[in-house]
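We modelled the chain as a single entity of 140 amino acids. Its sequence is:
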Amino acid sequence: MENKNIDKSMERAKTGGTFKFLKTKYLGLEKDTYKYELTFSDECLNPFKTVQGGMIASALDEITSISVNIFTKDKMLPNSTDIHVTFHRPVLPGKVIGTAKIIKLGKTIVSVEGKLYSVEGKLAASALHTAILTDTSIIK
């Protein structure tokens, strides 16, 4: 993957509020898996002082979407049709590692697997994200 394509995708991602709110950092591509670091602040917590499920879903949506944009060399963005999230254990505030893997990229639909891991490396949540592909040239 060329750095200029990754830089272009990161510049696009930085324009979104979720990217900024979660302090998303792209860590790189290992084999066929995109890796990220995200940070959940105290504003993300539920009354149990763990990260609220919707915030976890947003993080998974964010990293799977950015990964599609990188994979397509900034030619496509996913427009979600479904995101199924499974919560495996509570997520605490602070840094987590997220991964995304393109399962199937068709002409109009993409399926992406996303995972969030605790700082200890334990699987905390996973997602299957399905989306319609949208050409970035129509986005102003």
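As a brief sanity check on the tokenised model: Helices lie at 3-13, 17-21, 53-71. The mean pLDDT is 95.
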